[in-house]
């Protein structure tokens, strides 16, 4: 480890690369031999019409992120356990307080021939944080970067100064909306990045074509060309089954069952790709009383929810986010259904035979179904539930202010990110309205700890507090289902938004 | 005839004006706006509020409508709220496929429906008529998307003869006629059936009408009788039905485009509604409505010409 007297290395390239090799790799089915060169791979994702963009800092949809991954690189990315792994940054280290970070850049070339330097990184950060850009998603989580005090150190070093200590900076630089662009670049119609494919055509709502970039720092891709297309669920299913596309993103358990015996298509299922659950609003009665929330945690039948809502394709949840991810507390007992105890708690909190409102919608597969099962299960313990339906398009924003119980889901992200985006007093997506200054302080203090072990221990206590007193009833960790045709090799199981997800430079066609 | 034409044209303009107001109000009534939908699941209420301001959605309804209407009158369809590009671009890039699909449907529809209608009408209650009528009645009752999925399952997935979707074919669709086979079949299935039923009924009525009986008695040859006396009178309800089929087609195209992932106007419209992109929704609905109005206008004028007696009744 390159440890200097004043700076402590938090994570090195070697450790992370080793970890990357150990996780996520699974052989791509029988017959996968050595990679073959050439060919055009067509991948299809859920589309979003004209909203789709090639501005990597305004990315929101999976289809955008996949396209940007082809054209751009980030400084850091995440492995399957959501640990930071080096990309454009070869290594990084921080001072003792985790207030000043230094990233060493790799020799990488942009598609126009320019060699990556510190100015590109500094410009990218300032572009992400541009106060005028309302749609830059990473702006919130990176707002503690002190731009005025960031600087280049030589040609290949960047020093990033923070306004408060943060040991999680590397993984925050791996989040959505953080790719590195060329110094001065501001034209999404002509995206120029360091990624494995150069953009040759893009039509929002329809298609993107990228051609192999031979000078990519990680070696040229096997494919000549990749096309990333947009289509709705039915069309994705038909297209991948008939061989018109090679890769279809976000498929349903029903689809997986349909193609079980199909010789042309196989399903790549990634375990533990996020979470499904219920969010109880803890800032108002009845769930401002932790006992009432505990009653709900005890009355849900997790096995049944997983069986019915996820067709069994999920692991049981233990009211904690991020099973299998780094910082997930080990050794906690699985919370089981206990209707008698739930009923006792309902009686004690005066909730027995009372009614709570559940705000649901069809925003995600299985939401309405989960709500109805919940109503049944709550009824068995003596809690009445009244369901109201909301519009799917704006459900998640509406649910922040509506309903006592709402559906909750979240894709893959690091546990600290999940907490800071969803559980701090000022968090943008605080679905449980969990606002406790002491909780905020405990979390921010933990995040500032440079020592890995101590930080992990402090995060553990933050998470157990939440599990005991918070409003999250997390019953399942669903699988993420993608479909690929049998001719595609090298596709790895990876939760969305991690380094090997939607990655087409390491894939080849047989 | 001229006065009638002018009156109908005037009404069409009024209809379009009223429609634009209604669509604007309805889109405004939809829960959520472009800002909430855009940041759904990812950002908080502050960020949504900032975006709303940036999109100009915090201004009063009347002001936004006046802005849009003024733009429309000066030939500017406005700017997409979510994509940032001009709405006219969305329209021009998607209208080609839809128009091609609709035009081809009409092209096949008219001769097919007339042929089937005449055949069954002339041989009413024969075995041929009963078989064909059974088929057409069955097809009429099958929803478009069910038929589409059945056809895809058979011809694309099982037999592999035809492409199942348009995914990835958007730039070269006019070079690949095989793409049109399944969508056209589905669009034709119902429309041909409905229209041919009308023509069948019209033919039977005309065949038994007094003037036909008289013409036959006077020795008019059967072919001439059919083409000069029966068909024009049988066609009058058919033309009205054709216009209604045009309207239906606009709805059918919506379903077909979704099932086959056709990058047309209907797909663009659905996406715009989902994104709450009001200027785009406005422009696209107005364009579709204009087509529907013009179709009906044309049908009325043709119907008027075919059966001038309706003017007397008015």
From TrEMBL, chain A:
Keywords from the UniProt entry: Signal
Signal peptide start-end: 1-30
Gene Ontology CC annotations of this record: ATP-binding cassette (ABC) transporter complex; periplasmic space
InterPro entries registered for this protein in UniProt: Peptide/Ni-bd, SBP_5, SBP_5_dom, TAT_signal
Pfam families linked: SBP_bac_5
CDD domains, per the entry: PBP2_NikA_DppA_OppA_like_17
Domain Solute-binding protein family: 84-403
Origin: domain of life: Bacteria
GO terms classed as biological process: peptide transport
GO molecular function: peptide transmembrane transporter activity
Protein name (Swiss-Prot/TrEMBL): Peptide ABC transporter substrate-binding protein
Organism the protein comes from: Streptomyces shenzhenensis
UniProtKB/TrEMBL annotation, chain B:
Highest rank taxon of the organism: Bacteria
Parts of the chain that traverse the membrane: 12-30, 95-119, 131-159, 179-196, 249-269, 281-299
BP-aspect Gene Ontology terms: transmembrane transport
A single Gene Ontology CC term: plasma membrane
Domain ABC transmembrane type-1: 95-303
One Pfam assignment: BPD_transp_1
Topological type in the membrane: Multi-pass membrane protein
Keywords: Cell membrane, Membrane, Transmembrane, Transmembrane helix, Transport
Subcellular location: Cell membrane
Similarity-based family: Belongs to the binding-protein-dependent transport system permease family.
Protein name as catalogued: Peptide ABC transporter permease
Organism this protein belongs to: Streptomyces shenzhenensis
